[in-house]
TrEMBL record:
The keyword Membrane applies. PROSITE patterns: MARVEL (PS51225). Keywords: Membrane, Transmembrane, Transmembrane helix. This is MARVEL domain-containing protein. Pfam families: MARVEL. It is found in: Membrane. The chain crosses the membrane at residues 32-52, 64-89, 101-122.
Amino acid sequence: MSHSVTIRTQTVTSSSSTIVVNTGYLKTWSGILKLLQLALGIVCIGIAGHEFSNNLVYRNTAELFFLLITTTFMIGTFILLLSCLTSFSTASIISKTIYELLYHSIAFGLVLAASLTLLVHVNNYKRYNGYELLLGASVCTML
């Protein structure tokens, strides 16, 4: 008993240009903390950058160090948050590596040093016009 079988193959190509955002990551503790880090970094850079540009005659190394360190780690946190938001696997894989521990340890130490340096400098020069703003930026980074 013989019979014939017909096999049909169909090739389907689809080009999907949708961008998938992992919004569930923002509901986790690490997502919330990274978003908070990013927001505080933006606020501190805004304050320090504004005061830095207002003080054209006298540029202080403590203010420059603070601006440099907070900008560096704000950009790093933004890239880390962006990579976790745009990839489902990155959020689960990167937390299992030592990268985040090293990144946040180094960031903590350098931002704390920059913040304390600016705090000491601002307290020594209380007659400075932007005293309250720089003091607030310095304390904000210690949070």
